[in-house]
Design brief:
Blueprint lengths: L1 H10 L3 H21 L4 H20 L3 H21 L1 H12 L5 H9 L10 H13 L4 E5 L6 H4 L3 E6 L2 H8 L9 E5 L2 E7 L15 H12 L3 E5 L6 E5 L2 E6 L1 H11 L9
Parallel strand pairs: 1-3
Antiparallel strand pairs: 1-5, 2-4, 3-4, 5-6, 6-7
């Protein structure tokens, strides 16, 4: 009987069983930390729920339902590998590679300890204002839970304090770092010249260029907020959750950043 089986399992619970559960919990927690803030985390949680439902119906000897879910799980392994190919690659890279320094690993995990943090909005908007006046294109990514560690590897690591002069210098058209995105992590310009994924949305308006498509592409895959300065018009835009908002004012950008990062008492003067 199912109830007696459950009671028997608890009676025979050993130290090795506890260790087994602990290691599995640690393993899944590390995977969760790696993927949190991205769209992949929702799929991951869905798979975990399906697996636990499968174990429950198997324990309760619901044969028909357990066979159906079991077939879904066995076939779904290939689909999981396809869906999580980037996350699997990143996970294996963190485990096996020696090319990543211990300092960068420390920074990567340290950056994920806080969901929200102070950002030097004044320097960012000051730089955006100047770049708007000179029609200098810019792509600034503000990370949240997902620190985009795989994206920062495509660019040049700076790990520098935010300043309007540095941002202007990076996006100056004759600067080798201008072609790409700046990634801001924990109130620092962590990397520049980063390559962002382009949105594959076939309904994306044709009037937008690659800079706007890249802004939408990265916010489709993460919880980042992306600020854009148009090279053609000098106007501001921002992307959030895979959507682009065009022709926004500096005040609206400031309000957006304050809201997204829980920043209060910001001096706008």
């Amino acid at each position: 009987m199912p109830l007696l089986t459950i009671i028997y399992c608890f009676i025979n619970f050993t130290l090795l069983d506890f260790l087994d559960i602990l290691l599995v919990a640690i393993f899944f927690y590390e995977i969760y930390r790696l993927m949190k803030g991205s769209v992949a985390i929702n799929i991951f949680l869905g798979i975990i729920m399906v697996y636990f439902i499968f174990k429950i119906v198997s324990l309760l000897e619901m044969e028909m339902l357990s066979k159906i879910i079991g077939q879904f799980i066995s076939v779904g392994v290939i689909a999981v590998i396809i869906v999580f190919q980037q996350e699997i690659r990143r996970f294996l890279l963190l485990l096996g590679t020696r090319s990543i320094s211990n300092q960068n690993r420390f920074l990567f995990w340290r950056y994920q300890l806080k969901n929200h943090y102070y950002i030097d909005i004044q320097s960012i908007v000051k730089a955006m204002n100047k770049m708007s006046n000179t029609h200098t294109g810019a792509l600034i990514v503000l990370t949240k839970k997902n620190t985009l560690e795989d994206i920062t590897q495509t660019g040049v690591i700076l790990d520098a304090k935010i300043s309007d002069q540095l941002l202007e210098c990076i996006f100056y058209k004759n600067n080798p770092l201008h072609d790409g995105a700046v990634i801001i992590i924990q109130n620092k310009i962590y990397a520049a010249k980063c390559v962002l994924p382009i949105t594959k949305n076939i309904n994306f308006p044709e009037k937008y260029g690659l800079r706007h498509r890249a802004a939408v592409g990265i916010t489709e895959q993460s919880d980042a907020i992306v600020l854009v300065v148009s090279e053609q018009t000098g106007k501001f835009a921002y992307s959030k959750e895979g959507k682009i908002t065009q022709d926004v004012s500096i005040d609206k950008l400031i309000a957006l950043i304050e809201q997204e990062f829980n920043i209060s008492n910001f001096d706008k003067n």
